[in-house]
């Protein structure tokens, strides 16, 4: 169990922040790394080409790779989950008449891209729904068929917190020759990811939620079989010999090795990558295994504390870091706003209250949440 890490964050005692699934607060050290890079931008002569343009992004790549269980060569630096998913779609060609499987109410970044691809290729986007007591895994395994060409899903459903057994989904997809594309934005860094068992074709995560990092940065894993594929951009810095700024017009045909060809333009992201590196170093130091165990204890304690007030978590196979609570009929429609006015920050997704703590939350937060709910509901 990891003790409360609140001191590492700029969280006033009178604020209860249970909303990492919306936006993770950046640790103070990482914010300082970002501020340092802005200070350098005021004095550009301090930039070091090798370090700032190449080495710092390589650190990001290798740290993100550790979360995926891959090597840095398999990681591309992207601005958003949608960018990684668009890269996947550009490199997959579903046969006409086949199905691209997605989950009901899946996050839109992992929907629109498949609708467009499906229209272009004559494939159908098929939505997999689950019944109340069914897990997403059961629903997905029931839907995978010989018609399936692509399974595009998360590890954890963003709105109900249901977790998928990805090794099982992957095995079923592979048996049908289907590709597996994952959006791990609601799980990477807080759930262990078993690359060997899951073997996705592509997997992506934005940095700004559970990775506690800056907005507009993400890490895309690309399986070896796709690493000579087509990139969304023809980015000069991922070509051979890009380190030699004096000779960039000796245009190069070859790309840097691995998934680097899929990097976004200006991937060195001086204002983003150093801060993200500090966040990833912190997450790796805690370790996703211990983080998930600790967050399971926190969400379990919260669920037990609010159950007497009529709030219930009924999602089968809920993820350890997620609580999606159905509300009693008497709950006011603007409950989230009312809680916000008491400096208790949660989200509402559909008709459920989404409560997503991280390591900075402690028992005082749970007590404040319960007291506020009592005041608003009883
Ligand atoms: C599951 C999931 N994927 C992706 C995102 C963010 O997508 P993007 O990085 O494309 O803006 C979110 C944001 O809420 C999300 O919940």
Structure description:
This protein is an alpha/beta fold. It folds into 2 domains: 6-21 and 288-377, Aspartate Aminotransferase, domain 1 (Alpha-Beta Complex), CATH 3.90.1150; 34-285, Type I PLP-dependent aspartate aminotransferase-like (Major domain) (Aspartate Aminotransferase, domain 2, 3-Layer(aba) Sandwich). It has helices at 28-41, 49-68, 81-90, 112-121, 136-143, 166-175, 195-198, 273-286, 288-306, 335-341, 363-377, and strands at 16-17, 75-78, 99-103, 124-128, 148-154, 179-183, 202-206, 218-222, 312-313, 323-326, 344-345, 347-349, 352-355. A hairpin with a 2-residue loop joins strand 12 and strand 13 (352-355). The longest helix has 20 residues, at 49-68. The protein is globular, with a radius of gyration of 22 Å. The structure holds pyridoxal-5'-phosphate. The site of pyridoxal-5'-phosphate has 11 residues, from helix 3.
**Name of the CATH class of the largest domain:** Alpha Beta
Could you give a short account of the major beta sheet? Answer: 7 strands, mixed
**SSE string, helices as H and strands as E:** EHHEHEHEHEHEHEEHHEEHEEEH
Number of strands: 13
Evaluate the radius of gyration. 22 Å
Count of separate DSSP helical elements: 11
Shape: globular
Judged by helices, strands and strand pairing, the structural class is: alpha/beta
Instruction: Output the strand order for the largest sheet.
Output: 2-8-7-6-5-3-4
Give the helix proportion (percent range): 25-40%
What binds here, in terms of ligands, is: pyridoxal-5'-phosphate
Number of domains: 2
Taken as a percent bin, the fraction of beta residues is: 5-15%
Mean pLDDT: 97
CATH level-3 fold name of the largest domain: Aspartate Aminotransferase, domain 2
Superfamily (CATH H level) name of the largest domain: Type I PLP-dependent aspartate aminotransferase-like (Major domain)
The CATH level-2 architecture of the largest domain is identified as 3-Layer(aba) Sandwich
The low-confidence parts are: none
Distance between the termini: 34 Å
């Amino acid at each position: 169990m990891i003790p409360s890490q609140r001191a590492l964050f700029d969280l006033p005692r009178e604020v209860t922040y249970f909303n990492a699934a919306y936006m993770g607060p950046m640790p103070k050290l990482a914010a300082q790394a970002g501020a340092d890079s802005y200070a350098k931008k005021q004095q550009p002569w301090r930039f070091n080409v090798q370090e700032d343009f190449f080495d710092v992004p390589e650190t990001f790549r290798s740290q993100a790779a550790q979360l995926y269980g891959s090597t840095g060569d398999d990681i591309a630096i992207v601005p958003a989950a949608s960018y990684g998913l668009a890269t996947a779609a550009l490199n997959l060609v579903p046969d006409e008449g086949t199905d691209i499987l997605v989950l009901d109410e899946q996050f839109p970044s992992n929907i629109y891209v498949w609708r467009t691809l499906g229209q272009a290729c004559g494939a159908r986007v098929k939505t997999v729904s689950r019944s109340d007591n069914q897990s997403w895994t059961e629903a997905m395994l029931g839907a995978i068929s010989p018609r399936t060409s692509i399974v595009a899903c998360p590890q954890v459903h963003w709105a109900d917190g249901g977790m998928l057994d990805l090794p099982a989904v992957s095995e079923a997809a592979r048996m049908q020759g289907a590709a597996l594309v994952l959006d791990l934005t609601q799980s990477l860094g807080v759930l262990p990811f078993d690359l060997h068992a899951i073997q996705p074709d592509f997997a992506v995560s934005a940095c700004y939620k559970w990775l506690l990092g800056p907005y507009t940065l993400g890490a895309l894993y690309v399986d070896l079989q796709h690493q000579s594929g087509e990139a969304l951009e023809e980015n000069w810095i991922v070509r051979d010999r890009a380190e030699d700024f004096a000779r960039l017009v000796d245009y190069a045909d070859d790309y840097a090795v691995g998934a680097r060809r899929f990097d976004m333009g200006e991937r060195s992201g001086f204002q983003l990558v150093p801060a993200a590196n500090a966040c990833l170093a912190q997450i790796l130091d805690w370790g996703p295994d211990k983080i998930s165990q600790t967050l399971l204890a926190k969400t379990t304690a919260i669920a037990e504390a609010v159950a007497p007030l009529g709030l219930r978590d009924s999602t089968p196979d809920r993820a350890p870091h997620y609580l999606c609570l159905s509300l009693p009929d008497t709950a006011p429609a603007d409950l989230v706003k009312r809680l916000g006015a008491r400096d208790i920050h949660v989200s509402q997704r559909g008709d459920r209250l989404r409560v997503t703590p991280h390591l900075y939350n402690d028992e005082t937060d749970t007590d404040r949440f319960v007291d506020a709910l009592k005041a608003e509901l009883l």
